[in-house]
């Protein structure tokens, strides 16, 4: 962050406002998360900070991420072998569910344990007790297609419990 100010030409009030604004930016900037990239054509080079160095799988990008990060996923079919997501992330398909799929064949639900935002995927072939997704915290899911779920216990595409009562599912097809 480079800021050049000539405080000599400012009134005292303006200088204080400028100083406060800069202080807020400096304090807030570490709160802004990194962007991680996922693409089948990536070089798979951590920390996955560009399309060229993108992870070839969502699991590795999740494992590298910290609270507040965003994961952008390009077209392709992925598996999330790390089914429990315990980081506050935004996970987005850049081109939508018609070209970006999470195939959970033989795997349980993707479990979200911190507030999340998840958008633009087809999620299919999940097996287990909870369907395709399990929310244990407030999660916002949008523009997804949930299909071919082999649920052996609850018979649903997504299940919420605990603090997830405020989860929101918007514009999804089950």
Strand order of the largest sheet: 1-2-5-8-12-16
Terminal CA distance reads 45 Å
The chain-level structural class is: alpha/beta
Number of DSSP helices?
2
What do these coordinates show?
The protein is α/β, with parallel strands linked by helices and 174 residues long. It is 14% helix and 29% strand. The chain is built from 2 helices and 16 strands. β1, α2 and β2 form a beta-alpha-beta unit. It starts with 11 loop residues before the first helix and ends with a strand.
Topology:
Blueprint: H1 12-28, E1 35-38, H2 58-64, E2 70-73, E3 76-78, E4 84-85, E5 90-93, E6 100-103, E7 110-112, E8 116-119, E9 122-124, E10 127-128, E11 133-135, E12 139-142, E13 145-147, E14 150-151, E15 158-160, E16 168-170
Parallel strand pairs: 1-2, 2-5, 3-6, 4-7, 5-8, 6-9, 7-11, 8-12, 9-13, 10-14, 11-15, 12-16
